[in-house]
Design brief:
about 325 residues; alpha/beta; about 15% strand
């Protein structure tokens, strides 16, 4: 089983090196750099120095675009939307939403430019982070709906709209993974789809250019019995196997409330027992210093480290 952590990163190579040394001591195979749009423009050292330093420690460098287009993941601060406001999502009533639309041609082009950058810098994989259903009625979405259904999105049946949104998620994943395989065939393509998007799992796994699919059952702050994770994990494993994909799972180490740290261990034990191809932790050192930090970062991170160590035991 491969293991890895998501890493918020730093622009100073001295700090990157120190953190990567620590990550390697935990036996991690992969480190997933959560790169924000700002890192491509101003804090460029975070991307520039990272791949080589990771490989120096024998760790595979992967990239996640965290908060991209104010839509995917946390840390939402989109440089792109400042320059291309027409790429914002639009409500049914015509009002702009804070998030960008992944159906917009300019937005897709921008993401591809970012992929070009990480490929040239030496990252070995790109992680498509939590694409989910939007509620957008922008011109790009309306045109795509018209193409697929020969109807007006704003007047369509809700069942058709839901089906369209699901198809758009799969389309987005396949467009990006296809671009990577055509342009950078050695790069791994990975994607995480949330449990709330379970209806999209099978179609996403069926995309010919996606290598690795997983989900993130973030129940640490919930009172759900951790044993109920197993059917979800097994469903994902079955889907991935049927389509010849690798299968990964995420363990929550962000936003954990104080006193809930044992739930990290309990969830981690379930995931280890299910033996996915890879187990990843979000995020390094309990995401301390961010708005998504665990309330007791030291206790939360120690629980996550215990799972990472156990994953590597014979």
């Amino acid at each position: 089983m491969r293991t890895g952590v998501a890493y918020m990163g730093h622009h100073n190579p001295r700090h990157i090196k120190t953190d990567l040394e620590d990550i390697r001591r935990l036996g991690c195979d992969d480190v997933l750099l959560a790169a924000q749009e700002n890192d491509f423009v101003y804090m460029t050292g975070k991307l520039e120095f990272f791949p080589k330093l990771a490989r120096d420690f024998g760790i595979r460098p992967l990239a996640i675009f965290w908060g991209m287009l104010n839509f995917f993941g946390g840390g939402r601060s989109s440089q792109f939307l400042l320059e291309y406001p027409d790429a914002h999502q639009v409500s049914r009533s015509g009002e702009y939403n804070p998030s960008g639309c992944y159906n917009h041609t300019h937005a897709l082009g921008y993401v591809k430019q970012m992929i070009d950058c990480i490929a040239e810098l030496g990252f070995e994989g790109y992680f498509i982070d939590e694409p989910t259903l939007s509620e957008c009625f922008c011109p790009a979405c309306r045109a795509l709906f018209e193409e697929m259904y020969s109807a007006d999105l704003r007047q369509a049946d809700e069942a058709d709209i839901k089906n369209f949104r699901q198809r758009c998620v799969g389309r987005y994943i396949e467009l990006l993974s296809g671009y990577i395989k055509q342009t950078y065939p050695k790069m791994e393509t990975l994607c995480c789809l949330m449990p709330c998007d379970k209806d999209v799992w099978d179609s996403a796994a069926g995309g010919k250019n996606l290598d690795n699919l997983g989900t993130d059952i973030y129940w640490v702050n919930e009172d759900v019995d951790v044993k109920e994770m197993s059917p979800l994990v097994r469903d994902m494993a079955r889907i991935c196997k049927s389509h010849g994909k690798k299968h990964h799972q995420w363990l929550q180490c962000w936003g954990v409330r104080k006193g809930r740290e044992q739930r990290i261990k309990a969830q981690g034990e379930v995931l280890l027992a299910e033996k996915p191809d890879a187990l990843y932790i979000w995020a390094y050192q309990a995401q301390a210093g961010t708005s998504e930090s665990c309330e007791d970062p030291e206790a939360a991170w120690e629980a996550a480290c215990g799972i990472l160590r156990k994953a590597k035991q014979p």
